[in-house]
UniProtKB/TrEMBL annotation, chain A:
Pfam families: Ras. PANTHER family: DRAB11-RELATED. It is a lipid-anchor. The lineage of its organism: Eukaryota, Metazoa, Chordata, Craniata, Vertebrata. This is Ras-related protein Rab-39B. InterPro entries: P-loop_NTPase (IPR027417), Rab39 (IPR041818), Rab_GTPases_membrane_traffic (IPR050209), Small_GTP-bd (IPR005225), Small_GTPase (IPR001806). Keywords: Autophagy, Cell membrane, Cytoplasmic vesicle, GTP-binding, Lipoprotein, Membrane, Methylation, Nucleotide-binding, Prenylation. It is found in: Autolysosome membrane; Cell membrane; Cytoplasmic vesicle membrane. Belongs to the small GTPase superfamily. Rab family. NCBIfam families: small_GTP.
TrEMBL record, chain B:
Gene3D superfamilies: putative rabgap domain of human tbc1 domain family member 14 like domains, Ypt/Rab-GAP domain of gyp1p, domain 1, Ypt/Rab-GAP domain of gyp1p, domain 3. This is TBC1 domain family member 22A isoform X4. Residues 132-148 have a biased composition (Acidic residues). Residues 119-131 have a biased composition (Basic and acidic residues). It holds the Pfam family RabGAP-TBC. Residues 149-159 have a biased composition (Polar residues). Residues 245-447 form the Rab-GAP TBC domain.
Length: 213, 518
């Protein structure tokens, strides 16, 4: 049974190889930490419901992208239809932090004409002893881009919920305020099928048309 | 679509010989093992066969001696480094050195090593962590059923062991079960302990010695042995025989012959092996900084790292691409078995004598290189080979199962979203290792097995899940299904059926080269 949801948001998770994108998503969607995950090839798909307020659920569809440069030609196709993004770096890997800017540029140049709401995520915060990027520094960078900053650990399940839910809430607010609107031919935000929620008749019609036969 | 197919049918029935061909293929039921057997030599009208070859992409290996140069092979002999027997090693080394600029070498080295040693470190920490957690778990959640099941099922793949969820609140995704299966079935490209989980536990015919051999199997093994014994192995005959699977006992030698690593002449084999192994370790000496080994003590990972490193620096247009690492595993595992007689569940690679390990490493390197030479455009910039093949897959599926194709379209599932990985990793992430090994028996026996026939296998594979696909009711369900197809329990039989169907498709659609274009 499909659970009832208010909106569906598509999100993309980006960042250097081995910063822990897949592990973070798996922790979030499957509630566990895979000991080792194979490097992502191309793009993987995940999904989960998030309850942002009692009774208000958002369905998240999450694209997990391969960090390796060779796969850019594949992964860049996924920006356009994303409304939210988690930009990860590894707090024990300075280089992955230095590449944050490059990732943002990559996203910006491929998301036109839409926009992605990003959160900057400093991952592997359980490895504090090997930290190469200070919290202040990362917060400052995030601030300069107007993004939230959150430190997470998929292994210890720290702030994983927070990272996704806060981003979801931010987007929800923007949708409510009309700053982000549902658009035909754009997958970033879709309206759900909930009683008492008004959604455009066009949306309903569109899904009805999806009968196969 | 259906119109086009009908049209083709008509076209063929107007032509006498083609009619024969069409009917013959239609009358063969997909899945027939007989059909598979000797598939390289379908009883075709030679005239028709010639026609097919002209239009299709298939090389004319049926009547051509394997060593004889086709255009492609000629091209290869010019460009490929150090492949053909009898070339001057020094010259090759010089060539290689000249072609490699130091930046490329360094960058590649960094990529390969960073990637692997990172994983390794992570692993060590995790193992440590895992132990602690295991203890905790024992005290805590004994009644967590799901967890128990998961652990039992994945026990043969220790690295897939799942860790219990912490108490973070979470609304379970509706497809959680699927995700779990997926995690279980996905094999590790690089096992993280020096143990090979040799899949023997899974009643595996491909890697473990199966205790009872059927009469048919025994007779097949005999045929192989006879063929391999002669002063000159008839490679054409060997391909025919191998298409429907190679007995475990003769698989290492057969793979080496089919890949072109070993010469058909028995007397020359030993010297060839020696030369190629020396050559490989010459590369290691010249390019590989042994300080890299300090990162970790794990023999298995060191070997993989060296193989990938040497390949990457010798192929700067590709460099190291994730996925290539997966492709080393089947060779490595099969060649390890050349040195193990007894049946084992887990095998500690580092228990092999160093000399033996070196041989396995060099052999794996060369055979992997040979494979990759045929599919290099999968891994060069923008991965044109994959893009092309995914398009071809889409076109093919639209013709063989319009319903499934339209269903995917309807829900806006793009082929690239699931089939990219099928091409990039040759289905290795979708199938258990034992199945990949069996699949590669055929790929090495089939002309352009890895580069072309694989496309038909992917098409057959997709359509194989038609029922499950049509049961899904939205994009999400389809994506999750297609990224986690339940093949965990697959064995030789399923692969044989798949190959039979792929073979049927290949010949049914071989007259339509236009299926590459939409």
């Amino acid at each position: 049974m499909e659970a009832i949801w208010l909106y569906q948001f598509r999100m993309i998770v980006i960042g250097d190889s081995t910063v822990g994108k897949s592990c973070l998503i798996r922790r979030f969607t499957e509630g566990r930490f895979a000991q080792v995950s194979d490097p992502t090839v191309g793009v993987d798909f995940f999904s989960r419901l998030v309850e942002i307020e009692p009774g208000k659920r958002i369905k998240l569809q999450i694209w997990d992208t391969a960090g390796q440069e060779r796969f850019r030609s594949i992964t860049r196709a996924y920006y356009r239809n994303s409304v939210g993004g988690l930009l990860l770096f590894d707090i024990t890997n300075r280089r992955s932090f230095q590449n944050v800017h490059e990732w943002l540029e990559e996203a910006r140049s491929h998301v036109q004409p839409h926009q992605i709401v990003f959160v900057l995520v400093g991952h592997k915060c359980d490895l504090d002893g090997r930290r190469q990027v200070s919290r202040q520094e990362a917060e400052k960078l995030a601030g300069s881009y107007g993004m939230r900053y959150v430190e997470t650990s998929a292994r210890d399940a720290i702030n994983v919920e927070k990272a996704f839910t806060e981003l979801t809430r931010d987007i929800f607010e923007l949708v409510k305020r009309g700053d982000i609107t549902i658009q035909e031919g754009w997958e970033g935000v879709k309206s759900g099928f909930v009683p008492n929620v008004v959604h455009s008749s066009e949306e309903v019609l569109k899904s009805d048309r999806r009968c196969l036969c | 679509m259906s119109k086009r197919i009908t049209h083709n049918k008509q076209k063929m029935s107007n032509d006498g010989s083609k009619k024969q061909f069409w009917k013959r293929n239609v009358s063969k039921v997909p899945g027939s093992i007989q059909h598979v057997y000797g598939a390289q030599h379908p009883p075709f009208d030679p005239l028709l066969h010639a026609n097919l070859m002209k239009t299709g992409n298939m090389p004319h290996t049926t009547t051509v001696k394997p060593k004889k140069a086709t255009t492609f092979q000629e091209f290869e002999s010019i460009t490929s480094d150090a492949w053909d027997v009898g070339e001057d090693d020094d010259e090759l080394l010089a060539m290689a050195a000249e072609n490699l600029n130091i930046e490329v070498v360094m960058e590649t080295a960094n990529k390969v090593i960073e990637n692997h040693s990172k994983l390794q470190e992570q692993k060590q920490q995790e193992e440590h962590f895992e132990k602690e957690e295991e203890e905790e778990e024992e005290e805590e959640d004994r009644d967590d059923e799901e967890e128990v099941v998961t652990q039992t099922a994945s026990s043969s793949y220790s690295e897939n062991r799942m860790v219990k969820s912490f108490s973070e609140a979470h609304i379970a995704a509706s497809k959680e079960g699927v995700g779990e299966r997926a995690t279980l079935q996905r094999q590790q490209s690089l096992p993280h302990r020096p143990l090979i989980p040799l899949v023997a536990r899974m009643a595996d015919q491909n890697t473990s010695g199966s205790p009872v051999m059927t009469e048919r199997e025994a007779s097949r093994l005999d045929k192989f042995k006879q063929l391999l014994a002669g002063p000159n192995t008839d490679l054409e005959e060997l391909r025919k025989l191998s298409w429907s699977g190679i007995p475990r006992q003769v698989r290492p030698i057969t793979w080496k012959l089919l890949s072109g690593y070993l010469p058909a002449n028995v007397e020359r084999r030993e010297s060839t092996l020696q030369r190629k192994r020396q050559e490989y370790f010459g590369f290691i000496e010249q390019y590989y900084d042994s300080r890299n080994d300090e990162h970790h003590q794990d023999t298995y990972r060191q070997i993989f790292e060296r193989i990938l490193f040497i390949w990457a620096i010798r192929h700067p247009a590709s460099g190291y691409v994730q996925g290539i690492n997966d492709l080393v595993t089947p060779f490595f595992v099969v060649y390890v078995f050349e040195y193990i007689e007894e049946e084992v569940e887990h095998f500690d690679v580092s228990s092999l004598p160093e000399e033996v390990l070196r041989n396995i490493e060099a052999d794996s390197f060369w055979c992997m290189s040979k494979l990759l030479d045929g599919i290099q455009d999968n891994y060069t910039f923008a991965q044109p080979g994959i893009q092309r093949k995914v398009k071809a897959l889409e076109e093919l599926v639209s013709r063989i199962d319009e319903h499934v194709h339209r269903y995917l379209q309807q829900y806006e599932v793009e082929y690239l979203q699931f089939a990219f990985r099928w091409m990039n990793n040759l289905l290795m992430r979708e199938l258990p290792l034992r199945c990949t090994i069996r699949l590669w028996d055929t790929y090495q026996a089939e002309p352009e097995g890895f580069s072309h026939f694989h496309l038909y296998v992917c098409a057959a594979f997709l359509v194989r899940w038609r029922k499950e696909i049509l049961e899904e009711k939205d994009f999400q369900g389809l994506m999750i299904l297609l990224q986690n197809l339940p093949t965990m329990h697959w064995g030789n039989e399923e692969i044989s059926v798949l190959l039979a169907e792929a073979y049927r498709l290949k010949y049914a659609f071989a007259d339509a080269p236009n299926h590459y274009k939409r």
